[in-house]
Amino acid sequence: RRVLFRSLAESGHATDAVRIEAADGLLRLARFQGRAGSPNLSQPQLAARNLDRAQALLAPLPRPEARELLARVLFERAWLDLWKLGDQHGAEQATKRALGVYAALGNPSRTLQIERAQALAELASWQGDFEAERRNGDAGLALIGVPRSADDALARFRFAGYRAESVYQTEGAKAALPFYAERAAMVDDFAHADVSPGKLLSSRTIAW
Q1: Is pLDDT above 70 for 104?
Q2: Rounded CA separation 87/102 (Å)
Q3: Measured torsion, CA atoms of residues 119, 186, 161, 32, in degrees rounded to the nearest 10
């Protein structure tokens, strides 16, 4: 049934709603196949293929929900390129496209704002731009505030890591120590947010 649905979505007769639903499903599938920082099937090539299919479905659609989903797909592709495919240039190009789509949105969702901050902080870390890493890490922490879910708790932990790393790289270990200690204290959040030990370990969430 799912295969038939995706085939319909990619046909020339699908409605916008069908294309959007199929693209959302492809994004979810790609995360199961190769999302670094979460349990996955270690199938990054299949994940990349499905993200590209989602992009193709969404690219011609002008509806705001399609444009928001396209930005999320592109940020996800950048994350995959960095962590699973080792393609920093590809990640930079995907991020550039995502930012273009994002800039045209009138009212991006909280989820997309968090994903944007995470993508920019991660890319900045790879590029050695630690000021941008700190700026986007702080932005992500401000967006999350008190975690509302397990995903919030994990994202907050990552953002705290970006902040700690950026201070370490620019000011040294002594200045960074309080930020790493703050990050370590966040582990308590996971118990309240029902994050399993397996997901904790697979999410790069061991504090230095």
Answers
A1: yes
A2: 22
A3: -40
- Cα separation of 137 and 134, whole Å? 5
Q: Could you identify the residue written with the tokens 């932005």?
A: 139
**What gap in Å lies between CA 207 and CA 202, rounded to an integer?**
13
Contact predicate 161/206, CB 8 Å: no
Does residue 157 carry a pLDDT above 70?
Answer: yes
| Token code pair at residue 139 | 């932005």
Report how far residue 183's alpha carbon sits from residue 189's, in angstroms, rounded to the nearest whole number: 10
Instruction: Tell me the pLDDT tens digit for each residue of 18-54.
Output: 999 999 999 999 999 999 878 899 999 999 999 999 9
Spatial separation of the C-alpha atoms in residues 181 and 174, rounded to whole Å:
11
- The residue-averaged pLDDT of 171-192 equals 87
Nearest to 4 by CA among 30, 25, 35: 25
Beta-carbon contacts of 60 under 8 Å, excluding residues fewer than 6 positions away, are none
